[in-house]
Structures are given as structure tokens and as C-alpha cells.
Amino acid sequence: MPSDSNRSAAVMHIYIMDEAMNPVICLPVNNSEGTLNIFPAGILHVKISMGAVELASGRYSVTVAVMDSCTSEALTRVQGLSPFRIISDKVQWGKLVRHVVPEQIDVLTPPL
What we know:
Layout: E1 9-18, E2 23-28, E3 39-40, E4 58-68, E5 74-86
Antiparallel strand pairs: 1-2, 1-3, 1-4, 4-5
């Protein structure tokens, strides 16, 4: 993040955007306590693991937004990073796909 004498710290959000540049997933960058990580002013190299991302077929890219930690003023926003494509042999209607397994199935009416 650019150094500015009026800025002492910032927070960061990472977004996965769809082809129309609509945000699909927001990943606030937190610390180990689960609150927004406060980054010092200066030029930083930050390595982040997003873990498994459950996206439907389509084209996506990454956007990084950095805001002042006190005022929430946008300091920088970089769009269209690392474009990628998800290809699947199945079509899902949602942008996120998370397969679930029922915990219990009760038959309320017997078959005819």
C-alpha cells in the first residue's frame, strides 16, 4: 500500500468477482482473533490462502480493496487480478455450489 504521512494503518478485503464484475465472495483479511487485520503503512508483501472456493462454472477474477483502518476511506482497489475459469460437466444455477448430505430423512407418506 502506498505510504502516506496521514495514514498509519489499513485493512484489506479480497473479492472474487464474476464475469460481469459483480462480487460473488468477499474475503475480509482477518487476524488470528477473527477481527480485521490492521496492516501498517508502507509497501507490504502479503501471502493469503483462500482455501477451497465452491464456485459454479464460469469466469471469475480477483479484486483487492485496501481501506484506511480508521476512516474506511478507500486507499486502493485493483480489479481483474488473476482471471480464472471454472469448468464443470454439470450446470448449477447458483454462483456458489456446496453439496450437502441430509442428516435425517423421514418418510411422511408411504409410496402409492
